[in-house]
Amino acid sequence: MLINKVSDQIKRSKYISRDLSWLRFNYRVLDQARDTNKSFFDRLKFLAITSSNLDEFFMIRVGSLYNYLDYGKERTDYSGLRELPFRKKLLDYAHRFVNDQYLTYNNELKPLFEKHGCDILKVSELTEIEQKKVDSYFKNTIYPLLTPMVYDNYHGFPLLMNQLLTFGVVTRTTEEQKAQDRVTFIQIPQNLARFYEINRKDRIIFVPIEDIIRWKIKKFFRNVEIVSVNLFRITRNGDFTLEESDDLEADFIQEIKSKLRTRKKGRVVRLEVERNPSQFMMKILKERWTIDNANVFTINSLIDLRALWQIINHRHFKDKGFKQPSAVQPLSLPSDGVDMFEYLKEHDVLLHHPYNSMEPVVSLLERAAEDPSVLGIKQTIYRLADQSRVTAALLKAAENGKHVSVLFEVKARFDEERNLREGERLEKAGCFVIYGISKYKTHTKMLMIIRKEGEKVTRYVHIGSGNYNEQTARLYTDVSLLTTNEVYAHDVSEFFNVITGHSRPNEYKYLMTSPKGMRHHLIELIRSEARNAKKGLKSGIVIKINSLEDKEVMDEFYKASKAGVPIKLIVRGICCLRPGREDLSENIYVKSIVGEYLEHSRLYYFHNNGEPKVYSGSADIMVRSFDRRIEALFLITNEELKKEVINILYYNLQDNQNSYIMREDGTYVKKRAGTNEEVVDIHKLFFNKACNEVPESELV
């Protein structure tokens, strides 16, 4: 009865739960691992991604829920459920996902290992010679690094680290004729490879490190009875919110560093454990961490499927997966050999990554670092590549005496430590570095190069939806603009003054920004389409984003739909809006694209009675994007570039190979090409330059 009541409550709500929507997104990623048209190693890759995604989901989203539960704060989910019933619904759904995840691994992928030149074997399945090699590896490498930590009446409970594999070994001793059980914990250090590799003639064998330790576990318990050996892994709450501080003397960097330390000992929100664990140990763990069976995930296989990356990235298999085509020349940039400083004086350039390379941006920055005419460089940085060419160029610019100011976002989740480290390097080189803006996360992506050219100064601007990361630019789809247009330059200069100083410009001409004004601006654009529809004029909205969650904007979409505006939304991940509900959203169509590349670009199209307004930039339609982040969307004014972006949206809507259509109940169904329908795969199509030629595409 209670289950039906909860289900009815969810169905009645005009919004979809953010967290349940996210789990459905991870199902679409899991669908890639099930796709038999993909190579075996690509399927393994997507399975590993689902595992990484789920780790972050538990750390951040489930962690956030427990912030409410643990401190007695009220929370009502978009589904209409309060904290406790929602916790049950969410964790039940998570259990279902994990079950499907391991069915995919055990039944569909594991049987294919041997056929593809590899295998995961236990020590007992190795030859005698191979076992001797493993024995030597254990003695020389593993054994010295392991530290048994006993928990009993004389020893306190040890701090067990987040997401490390841990053995809980229950032992028994007899003291004064009384048997006593105790548990000893052995954590496997993260700097040890998950698999020991053995080369055979026909294939490569991967031996899990946990199986090696289990094989030799008695080395740690001499003259002691081992009752049971149990492998488990915990996930701790990694969600924290920086409070606003008006104390200008507070050391913001130290605050971040302290938050990073607390992540290591946050409350446990998930316990993954192998089958048939010791009930003695489980009772201790559940009581210690205040968890119950809903938090416990029994794994009938390899715990932590992120381990598969070691196989996927192995030198023998690196060329077995997806082969990315060479990038094509941007339509607005005739060749690689042009002088970008000269070319950009007369032309704007639109880049569509990864189909167009990020090289024009990086090489322009590198050239600016060396160019004696360049006076200064300003840039926002959210995520960087390893051995970043961007950092190297900024260091070189500072060494060459140029003014370099960089806003490093140290709250970029899980990249905090890297950004702090890179920021400190730039500071030492003489760069002016700002580490974020107190309570706001700087998510916008902007670069400005200031160059003296004769009697005048020209500002070269780059602004887009993607990070300044050369590695992910080959994996994420993004859109960016290079320009010297004075209006963009003025707006971006003003915006830099806002985020690095204390300035509040009245308005921008080509930018809409947050935390001031973006939600209101977007709502006005939606209302304008609704007004046109009511007048009988042609109207329409097409938006491509990562996530849709802001209630105020969703309510405006609902009103516009009732007014007759056709609305097409391409939302990769979380979508809290219900499409196609009678008397609410009958004119709203939602699809998600999940495939070889991570859809990361944000594009906003408003028909505007035949004179379209088209925006791109860093912001999704989320509360955090409007209220807790520094974001920018930029208006695309160049008519040819505007057509190009409309073309991108057009083919995104046509795609029938990577697309999932969202139903009214929040579920998704894979879109298939019809019998006589042309196959459209945007992850291949945009590498064909001919397909990038700009037709007069009709979106609405």
From TrEMBL:
**Does the keyword field hold Nucleotide-binding?**
yes
The active site is formed by: 443 (phosphohistidine intermediate)
> Polyphosphate kinase middle domain: from which residue to which, for each copy?
130-311
Sequence positions that bind ATP? 53, 476, 572, 600
Pfam families found in the cross-reference section: PP_kinase (PF02503), PP_kinase_C (PF13090), PP_kinase_C_1 (PF17941), PP_kinase_N (PF13089)
**InterPro entries recorded:** PP_kinase (IPR003414), PP_kinase_C_1 (IPR041108), PP_kinase_middle (IPR024953), PP_kinase_middle_dom_sf (IPR036830), PPK_C_dom2 (IPR025200), PPK_N_dom (IPR025198), PPK_N_dom_sf (IPR036832)
Q: Where are the transmembrane segments?
A: none
Highest taxon, organism lineage: Bacteria
**Could you tell me which Gene3D superfamilies the record lists for this protein?**
Endonuclease Chain A (3.30.870.10), Polyphosphate kinase middle domain (3.30.1840.10), Polyphosphate kinase N-terminal domain (1.20.58.310)
Which reaction is this enzyme known to catalyze?
Answer: [phosphate](n) + ATP = [phosphate](n+1) + ADP
Tell me which EC number(s) this protein carries. Answer: 2.7.4.1
Q: What cofactor is needed?
A: Mg(2+)
PTM: An intermediate of this reaction is the autophosphorylated ppk in which a phosphate is covalently linked to a histidine residue through a N-P bond.
- Domain Polyphosphate kinase N-terminal intervals: 15-120
Residues that, per the record, bind Mg(2+): 383, 413
Similarity comment: family membership: Belongs to the polyphosphate kinase 1 (PPK1) family.
Q: What the protein does? A: Catalyzes the reversible transfer of the terminal phosphate of ATP to form a long-chain polyphosphate (polyP).
What is the name attached to this protein's record? Polyphosphate kinase
Native source species: Pontibacter toksunensis
- Please name the taxonomic classification of the source: Bacteria, Pseudomonadati, Bacteroidota, Cytophagia, Cytophagales
